[in-house]
Amino acid sequence: MGCCCHHKEEEPHKCCQSGVKHLHECGCKHKEKHECESHQCGCGKKSKSFLSEKSRLLISLATLVLSFCISREWIGWIHFPLSDPSWIAVILCGLPIAKSARESLIENGKITAPLLITTAMLAAILLQFIYLANPEAAGGHSHSSYIFAAGEIAFLMALGEMLEEYTVGKSRKGIERLASLSPQKALLKRGNETVEIEASEIKPNDILVVLPYSEIPADGVILEGSTSVNQSNLTGESVPVEKSAGDSVLAGTFNAQNRIEIKALKDASQSAIAKMIALVKEAEGKRAPIARIADKWASYIVPAAILFSILTGMFAHFALGKSPVESITRGVTILVVFCPCALVLATPTAIAAGIGLAAKRGILIKSATALEELGKCKTFAFDKTGTLTTGKISVRKVIANAPFGESDVLKYASSAEASSTHPIAHTILKFAEEKSILPLPSSNQKVLPGFGVECECEGQNVYVGKPDTDELKKIQGGEWQTLAVVKAGGKTLGYIAFEDNLKENAAEAVKSILKSADCVMLTGDNEKSAEKTANLAGIKTFYANMLPDGKLKAIEELKKNGKVCMVGDGVNDAPSLAYADCSISMGNLGSDIALENAEIIIMNDNLASIPKIFALSKRVILTIKTNITISMSVNILAVILAAYGILNPVTGAIWHNLASVMVVLNSARILNSSKNS
């Protein structure tokens, strides 16, 4: 099977077929196909081994313990340290590191942490052979084994890598939970018969039967029946949602009540849940800008460590008068403690934990950059309809201009809105249906972004949309919040007044965000409607009568004071979502536009999730900075101690890997944080 990912060769990534053994051809410079379960370019491919990673670590640990006991003369051993059991740890844990270093340097031309680790191991082994050749030069190290030091370095590095993979693997549980929701079977209706098929065989417009207490196999619309749908696995909503004919349903949700028939709108590969799984997996493989900085530092630290190691050895011998073995020992120790492993681990472990926790909470983050940028945002710009408000707009009143009646206004309005997906269009069509008014045949429907819609009907141009300023002054009188004017053949037939309610937790969410960032509202609605909604939400600054280009200009102006996050419904806010530094889409679980344009998708339409993901982003950034501080501080102190001979290769390996373990454990705290639950 060819690899379905398309990562650049310099980007570490997890294969999107994770957990499935397959032949992998990726964009890196490996010359042969290889079988893998998880692959990180530039770090060496992981191929099938006769020993599992845990087995290698346990065997290596046992040999190191045995070696330690032998060095303390607690156990008798022949030809020690040449026959040191630590050689097993060097082979099991050290050879993969050396192989990784060779591939990174020769095949990809990259200087990486494994190169420095390999150099340190080789130097420790060389030091042992120098001692064996001249025991008197050992300088008090006659009972020490530097093979043990090399094995310990290899073991601790492999242990640190396993801890990293454990943290990343734990964070992937949110992704695996999504993947487990993908239905496997479906009941296809063919005439009067129902046949079972694979969910992957579903095609658009197929009629599917969904039995009670079973998964819904495809994104679709209910044709017959009504039921309660449990969407908690996908959105986190604890209460099932009532659904009836005409309502949309999503693959992976659970039919909790009655038999229904649905028409599939997409095939399995294009369902919302399939796209969500793909997006989160893609996000796991993308690195944040701060990660690239850490990589850059690592590329400088490796050659600097080698140079400093040589200088330390020369200084100890020529300036301090230390023996050659002691001088070499100090130089080797520098190599061991200087390795930037903790620095390299600092970012990916925290990012993986953050993305995994968000997925578990029903929040999809499309890239590590989005998670990082969100935490830096100084302003949150909210759309109104469908974002701060419920989006469940209702018709409050129809105002007809004589000689036209209410039925004329609704007849032409529903004709123009027949093919529109805007919430107002749905409201008009539903209200007209309740009044038993059917749309007229129409053609040439056009959406006028920021204005409304128009079409050709009965030989006339029909327009439904925003009234101009004069019309608002004439009809509104300060009473109506949201109005749509209906025109046909150049005549104004009348107006439709709407009302929309603020979401239950909107004010609380805004209040929480205002503790660390500003909030503004951008809406295409009129001044009165915008003012009322902004006041109810607790937003002091709002912009009304905004067309799409006006929203872009407003965001551009807001950017002068810092990074801006746009929060919209993913439908008519696409340009703004794309232009902002970070973007969040609300309430469009099955919207392709939401998935494509927003960088963060909140699947449960819950505004309370925004301050939570904002806090999570800040926590991830703080964790990364803390990790970097830990790694740099421990390394600098270790270098000083090594230069003075306080640390040797053995104790230096323990000290150095202590930083790596601290970094991984610090990142793992994100997954266990009650603040983000």
UniProtKB/TrEMBL annotation:
The keyword ATP-binding applies. SUPFAM superfamilies: Calcium ATPase, transduction domain A, Calcium ATPase, transmembrane domain M, HAD-like. Signal peptide: none annotated. CDD domains: P-type_ATPase_HM. It catalyses: Zn(2+)(in) + ATP + H2O = Zn(2+)(out) + ADP + phosphate + H(+). Residues 181-281 form the P-type ATPase A domain. The chain crosses the membrane at residues 113-133, 145-163, 297-320, 332-359, 628-647. Its EC number is 7.2.2.12. It is found in: Cell membrane; Membrane. Keywords: ATP-binding, Cell membrane, Membrane, Metal-binding, Nucleotide-binding, Transmembrane, Transmembrane helix. The keyword Nucleotide-binding applies. Belongs to the cation transport ATPase (P-type) (TC 3.A.3) family. Type IB subfamily. NCBIfam families: ATPase-IB1_Cu (TIGR01511), ATPase-IB2_Cd (TIGR01512), ATPase-IB_hvy (TIGR01525), ATPase_P-type (TIGR01494). This is P-type Zn(2+) transporter.
